[in-house]
Specification:
Elements (H helix, E strand, L loop, with lengths): L8 H14 L12 H8 L3 H13 L3 E4 L3 E4 L3 H27 L4 H8 L2
Antiparallel strand pairs: 1-2
Length: 116
């Protein structure tokens, strides 16, 4: 996995695992790869993967069954979508609107571009 410098690596790993949950790679109550497996798959230190798993567990996206590993929470997809939607509306959309205004791009142009 290629990481960028804009965000902590453990958060990028958490985002990737969340993407895999959203895409259906992992469904509710599925066991996800162990921390060591996931760290090896991504080529990162296991401690970094632990931080990512801890973050997702705190958010209620995954849960740990002692001795068995981590599993996807029942409402993980809903929670991820809700969180990302809020972030999009509060952070991304205002920046898009600002750029559109500076560049004199109309909503109609955006709509036409997206429907091509």
């Amino acid at each position: 996995m290629a990481f960028n410098n804009d965000k902590a690596i453990y958060l990028q790993i958490a985002d990737r695992l969340s993407d895999e949950i959203l895409s259906g790679t992992f469904q509710a109550f599925d066991r996800i790869p162990s921390v060591r497996e996931y760290a090896a798959r991504l080529g990162v230190n296991a401690n970094t993967a632990v931080k990512a798993y801890d973050q997702l567990a705190q958010e209620g996206i995954i849960f740990n069954k002692r001795g068995l590993g981590y599993f996807v929470a029942e409402d993980a997809q809903r929670h991820i979508k809700q969180t990302r939607r809020q972030n999009f509306l509060k952070t991304v959309l205002p920046e898009i609107a600002r750029q559109m205004k500076m560049l004199d791009i109309s909503w109609e142009e955006i709509k036409n571009q997206l429907t091509k």
